[in-house]
Amino acid sequence: MKRRATLKDIASKAGVTVACVSLALRDSPQIATATKARIRKLADEIGYAPDPALAALAAYRSRVQPEHFRSVLACIIDGKSRNSLEPEWPSMAARARELGYEAQKFVLSDPSNEWEPLLRILRSQGIRGVFLAPRLRYDEAFPVTETDAFCFVTIGYSVRLDGIHRVSTNQSLDMLRHVGELKKLGYRRPGLWVPAGADGRVNHQFSAGYLAAFLAEGIEPPAPILHDGTPPPRLLRAWVRDHQIDAVIGLPQHLSLLREAGFSIPGKLGFSTYDWHGGKEVMGMSGMDYRPAQLASNAVDALHSALLNNRYGLSNDAPLTVFNARMVRGKTTKSGE
């Protein structure tokens, strides 16, 4: 069996003390930035990964962390939402292993009745890190219960649990940038088609970003936002033509609905999705890639940080970790100048 790399191994290669390595890997301000970068590089090269069990033992001895810290992260999936984390799970599980954990799925078929019993089971098993997967029914809140024994993290805004650490794309800023990217391609009258439910899941940040893109220029949006999920073809044609829309920002499935309504894309009308995620259904489309794999990896990092820093329970000042999506230029928009 291959011997596990240790802090002492890194210290020997770096020519520094073990204490220096420990501080560098915890991003301590006491260590110079260049030294931290060099130590992290060496740690990667020799395959070092922290052992949460050892960290827990050391923390317990110093009375910083609780006795029952374990190396399993619970990923709770709402069975009603049909969100099995299939696109994100490989990245989550891989990142968890890199940090010394094992990620394990738990499915709630009836969250309103099974939430509290599941937390009791997790506590009895010594599991303290809990990731809550996004939910379809974003308007349903989890029952109020005893949560002080756990560190919680979720992706996005669909989990209604006040005081939870959230990791999310920056939907409002991404939408503002989305409009700007389309303008670079020569589109002057982009319209936003976002179903009410999709907008509600993110606290209407899609709408806010779209409106802000035009407010920043001191002009009115070219068209009212279309909140109907599946409008009849005649209403869709009227929305585009009456407002002289030259590009539509929407969900991936909206592209086929536009074509069925008689629009040639790309042609007089362009299309770009705000939900570009790397799956086969978006291949060839233009859009804002929110990088679900990176999002999931960041969520694991946030949960790891919460555990190491003893941030248990829900908080009135819970962190929000955001990162930007990036524009993918596909075949559904013109090439631009």
Q: What is the N-to-C order of secondary-structure elements (H for helix, E for strand)?
A: HHHHEHEHEEEHEHHHEHEEHEE
The 3D shape can be described as globular
Largest sheet: 6 strands, parallel
- Compute the average pLDDT: 84
Percent range for helical residues?
A: 25-40%
Question: Strand pairing plus helix content: what structural class?
Answer: alpha/beta
If helices are DSSP runs of H or I spanning 4 or more residues, what is the number of helices? 12
Number of strands: 11
Cα end-to-end separation: 58 Å
- Sheet-strand content, in percent, reads 15-25%
Global Rg:
23 Å
Uncertain residue ranges: 62-70
The order of strands across the largest sheet is 2-1-3-4-5-10
What report would you give on this structure?
- The chain is an alpha/beta fold and 337 residues long.
- Helix content is 38%, strand content 16%.
- The strands form two sheets. Strands 2-1-3-4-5-10 form a six-stranded parallel beta sheet, sandwiched between helices. Strands 6-7-8-9-11 form a five-stranded mixed beta sheet, with helices on one face.
- It starts with 6 loop residues before the first helix and ends in a 9-residue tail after the last strand.
